[in-house]
Amino acid sequence: MFEFIFLGTSASAPSIRRGLSAHVVLYREYRFLIDCGEGTQRQLLRSGLGFKRLDKILLTHGHLDHILGLGGLISTFVRWETMERLEIYGSPWTLERVYDLIYRVVLRGAQSPMQIELIPIAAGVLLEDETFQIEAFPVSHRGAQSFGFVFQEKARRPFLVERAEALGVPPGPERRQLVNGQPVTLPDGRVVTPDDVLGPPRPGARLVHVGDAGRTDDLVEVARGADALIIEATYLSHEADLARQFGHLTAAQAAHLAREAGVRRLYLTHISRRYRERDVLAEAQAIFPDVVVARDFDRIQVKKVRESARQVKAPA
Hints:
By secondary structure, the protein is of the alpha/beta class. 28% of the residues lie in helices and 26% in strands. Strands 6-5-4-3-2-1-16-17 form an 8-stranded mixed beta sheet. A 7-stranded mixed beta sheet has the order 7-8-9-12-13-14-15, covered by helices on one side. Helix 3 packs across helix 4 and helix 10 packs parallel to helix 11 (277-285). The longest helix is centred in the N-terminal third of the chain and has 15 residues, at 92-106. It is globular, with a radius of gyration of 22 Å.
């Protein structure tokens, strides 16, 4: 299960109720910050997340409304010496802008007590461990070397308690050993293998995040079957020409993508203050019913389809 927190859901400039693009993904001991628009560190504090263990930042692209908050955040990290290492992932063009912001504005030649690593990304697996992986994929947005991210739990085999009990495998370390893929020998000399007590693999949760995008035809396969698709909806259809001009999507385009890709639930973000939330929702719902227009501080739990995705709205 992944937990996703919307910290900033406004497009281009903040509004009274919406901050600039920033989101957090929680998974086990990991914390990932996706984008870091102006004011992100305040949003982190208001959300109750704070800065602890926030040592990995994934950047969709290098436009200022998605990276400018890095200056203040890194300045705070450096002053407080809260972490030993910070990893920032982005395209080469994005990292060029981030380098200027950090080393020519924030630090200006000073030595950082924290190791800052700028890690260029390309399409493919970005990070993984034995339970999940993050995959980066290219996104078309005004030539900005943009990327989206797939958070995917790896398939696991469920432990079949009734079968284990029938074979006489006692609760405790023997069962843990079998779950870890190792056979066990019972007191009577019988050998029980993992295949004896584990069911067929079950796919894990799939969360797809897209930042700014100018088209969707190249996103259908990567979004296919996602339990949650989080994507921008900067414009409404009556201003589709503006959307094309500036390399953004309409709510209808996002909804068509969700329908074509067969996603479980659609979450719209990067909302322009020129529109009413209910109008954005209405346009998308006419095409894809299971849609939410996200607000700052909304939190969702993304689980496999059989468990669905539960959303908890922020207090009004």
